[in-house]
Design goal:
The chain is mainly β. The chain has three helices and twelve strands, in the order ααββββββαββββββ. The chain is 14% helix and 40% strand.
């Protein structure tokens, strides 16, 4: 019997090793996890918005438009940043066309080009500026966002880059300006906690519950504005010439 038990245990170990070797998923359940307690990211975000404390700030039910009888859906919600990166955004046409296509043209045309490009400030998977500053979660991301160099407050909906430049347009060409914004991406998690409850005469005891909703927020890299003016979008402008 002893040998049989040993053989059975060895078979179990081999099966686990094979699963790991072939890329099999190993699922770890938290002590408080339960299939009946599973939540979608949207449900978790609703719990976060209706938490008693968000990112360390004590809240009232009035902060999310609730009534006293509604109460809170969770005890705590924190945003935890896990990664931050910058990258080039999509290149866009930022001016009208300036042609030098007259049949008798012999010299470059001198033009003054005013160009402008706007980038959305802060768009997340589950939260965005459209939630507004009152009641929404987006403002709570400002603390994480603003620690990175050259960023706007995240409740600002957009930021703009632009300039006026003197350019020469060669004969037989059409000139326009393009702008490639520098963007940034903040990856993180909203972590919601419902504290354990002791049994009362009315309600049974319940264990602590924890839920996580990943979020990815993107927005432009911002250059400081001059003399207190709002910051402008960082990026690269380029003159583009095409044939008439």
């Amino acid at each position: 019997m002893a040998k049989r038990r040993l053989r059975n245990r060895k078979v179990r170990y081999v099966a686990i090793g094979a699963a790991l070797a072939t890329g099999g998923a190993v699922i770890t359940l938290l002590p408080s996890a339960n299939a009946a307690d599973a939540k979608t990211p949207d449900q978790i975000m609703t719990m976060c918005e209706r938490s008693a404390v968000v990112n360390g700030d004590q809240r009232s039910v009035e902060d999310f438009g609730g009534a006293f009888a509604d109460g809170f859906q969770a005890d705590n919600c924190d945003y935890v940043e896990t990664n931050f990166e910058t990258f080039d955004g999509p290149t866009e046409k930022a001016s009208i066309d300036f042609p030098n296509c007259e049949p008798n043209a012999t010299d470059p045309a001198k033009v003054s080009i005013t160009w402008s490009s706007t980038a959305a400030q802060g768009q997340g998977k589950y939260v965005s500026t459209q939630q507004g500053a009152a009641g929404g979660l987006f403002g709570f991301l400002s603390g994480s966002w603003s620690k990175h160099k050259g960023t706007l407050d995240m409740t600002v909906k957009s930021a703009t880059a632009g300039d006026t430049e003197a350019r020469d347009v060669p004969v037989g060409k059409v000139l326009h300006m393009e702008f490639t914004p520098k963007l940034q991406r903040m990856t993180g998690e909203w972590r919601v906690r419902v504290d354990a409850r002791e049994q009362t005469t009315v309600l049974p005891a319940s264990p602590e519950q924890n839920f996580v909703a990943p979020d990815v927020v993107e927005g432009p890299v911002i250059l400081p504005g001059a003399a207190g003016a709002p910051g402008v979008v960082d990026g690269t402008s380029k003159a583009v010439l095409e044939d008439c």
